[in-house]
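Re: the multi-chain job from yesterday

Posting the exact lines I submitted so nobody has to dig through the queue logs.
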Amino acid sequence: MTPLPRALHRELAAVLGDGWRVDPNERLAYAYDNSRRQALPDAVALPVERGQVVALVRACRAHRVPVIARGRGTNTTGAAVPVAGGVVVSFERMNRILAIRPGDRCAVVEPGVLNGELQAALEPHGLFWPPDPTSAGYSTVGGNLACNAGGPRAVKYGASRDNVLALGAVAGTGEPIRCGTATTKGATGYDLQRLLVGSEGTLALIVEATLRLTPLPPARRALRALYRDVAAAARAVARLMAQPVTPSMLEFMDATAVRLAREVGGADLPPEAGALLMIEADGDAQTLPHAVEALMRAAAGEGLVAIDDAADEAARERLWAARKALSPALRTLAPGKINEDVVVPVSRIPELVDGVQALAREFALPIVCFGHAGNGNLHVNLLFDPADAGQGARAEAALARVFALALALGGTLSGEHGIGLAKRAFLPQAIDPPTLALMRAVKAAFDPDGILNPGKLLPD
Amino acid sequence: MTPLPRALHRELAAVLGDGWRVDPNERLAYAYDNSRRQALPDAVALPVERGQVVALVRACRAHRVPVIARGRGTNTTGAAVPVAGGVVVSFERMNRILAIRPGDRCAVVEPGVLNGELQAALEPHGLFWPPDPTSAGYSTVGGNLACNAGGPRAVKYGASRDNVLALGAVAGTGEPIRCGTATTKGATGYDLQRLLVGSEGTLALIVEATLRLTPLPPARRALRALYRDVAAAARAVARLMAQPVTPSMLEFMDATAVRLAREVGGADLPPEAGALLMIEADGDAQTLPHAVEALMRAAAGEGLVAIDDAADEAARERLWAARKALSPALRTLAPGKINEDVVVPVSRIPELVDGVQALAREFALPIVCFGHAGNGNLHVNLLFDPADAGQGARAEAALARVFALALALGGTLSGEHGIGLAKRAFLPQAIDPPTLALMRAVKAAFDPDGILNPGKLLPD
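And the result, structure tokens for all chains:
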């Protein structure tokens, strides 16, 4: 039934009871994530409490069997795929919101709570948790933390790492640890909780999270600004980020994306628009009009083609339509898509976009850039036909050049998707040998036998 | 001249040239910090560049000689005191601002730059670096990072850890490392840069920092709200923090502090005021009045005695006078002061203040609480006469109870001062054994021979 050592299987079946699965058909459901990669785990554990996780990690450590934490498998890098076999620990049953404490602006949750469920529970308290990945409706808080998920709101409110106060976790040693406190300040020992965020399950399994919450702004308003070219839009981004009203979203589309939205998606955009910014402000009824004015002033400048202000929620939806038309439009160009999320300093966005378009020409593949401009975090979409081996190879070759370009511009490989399997071969280009050696030493401190999510994040 | 091994002395004299000091009188100047503790280093190094720091750490490691990083010695915990001898590395000559990049909202600095110098250089660009410890005029950025310094602005803009993008450092192995990138988002490997912040020189020596900057709000306005008692003020703090206009400062004074400011400092405060909040908003001319209104609404409520709004900078200074009268007034009460900076969840502030006043009665010592209420980070000042051994012993005993109280309320030992020597004996009460063991393992990964700032932060 399972390739696991029989003693381990028996031990874990006793620990997990109904939450221990070895049937191959059930295991298959935990073999994949949104990276299109797949590898069958030897077993699946569905713990309901921390003690089971401790017992499981200890038992697996004794047998040197891999342990792979899993939220809902929405990540795009293969970080949840059990490439070395072992036990997938799915946190779907540890999905309780343990406390919401509005006076302390924090919530305590188990890792399997869906991001969207949490937001719904927080809304009556006038609070929210800032990370808003596209997957928010069906990705877990634990997964968001493991990958340091971001989203459009990160430009104002930060990504997952910026919104965690404390974590309970089980290290690769099998020891339960508690890092941080439910306070917004702390200078008491090493900050292990932020180190765990983004570590993709390679250091510890998160079993409880105390999250930093933010008051929900009662209102928001969107602007759509069209620019002649990317350089003009990028200058506007720098102006927008240099004045005191930080936009709550600042999304970018390059010329190809604008053309696609217009020609394929049917968006109402003038042909002279070579770049688009979606800009949002949030606040209360009194301050919001002034915030919108400040953003409009900053958005204006040389190369601005048009700017539209959405007075109400319906108008906001219309303005966002161009952005939302983009993803379906991309699919009409080619069946295959590599979506990477490199990040560069904001001032280098024009060079990134220009460089990517040069690569599109060199490799004869459409490449479309859009994303979170206020953080310099662009989604670079390489489009190709997977049935055409030549195109696939060209896409891979172009991708390597995209990473090299982002690094040359002082940026890095990933802003919010993480490394996983997909980008680990590139990590030595982003991180120098002594720093990489230190990351390995840190990994060994948390997980001396290397049982946690082997084959991910750090290259061999 | 120096107790160092002769070979090491010769090697480091060659590496550092004029920046190598072994004269006992010169060494004495680097023996202390603001903790009133003192220990003579065996030598002082004043490097001018990273290569010297690498050579120094490698040489000291070969001889197992301690290396103690030092900014300007303003910290209050003894973290910069060379209790185990060795080489103090003062960064006073690595004090260049290497780059200010307004378009990327970042600055690159050497660790010896003074916080105040940096702010002055940023101001013409309309930017600032948020950490604002009281020592800002004469403390260094490197020291601020090493201790995770905060200050009143942290309530809106975060402490040092929240405002760093990348660090260059030299680990205890002698290896130069580079962690993070000059981007506000990153999901590329382990977040070692935030781990280094607050590690008090026990993991690595910071030799370069890329700092996250924030646009300087053009205007600010202060409110002073007086409450009947601490409970009423604390409820107001919770209301203030639960609405969308985050105050740029939210400072608290307890009844003893208010009475002192009035009776000794001559501040104009009514006798029925049992607690005081200083509330500031910042923004531009358009949004600021609305922000102030929102804060006034939130500050109002049961137990409010009076609220004053400073229309201009002169009025602002008058409102702050009560707070500023406090420190000199404290000195009139007793010559000795232990100032600790525990932190608790905001909702537990009343229990902390009540508990501290019960300890003041039990130990027959004045204890005055004030500080950064929006973060729950209160400065608890125990006043005593050091010439009176009984008072000194009572103050120490009361201090231990203050820490126990903060921990029992779900808080921790320090919000912004750090652990250093002063609080390391208490660390096992704040951090459980497996987590402390993991911190030691992380320390060993960075500093396998334990040469960096021995005797600090982690207990033996």
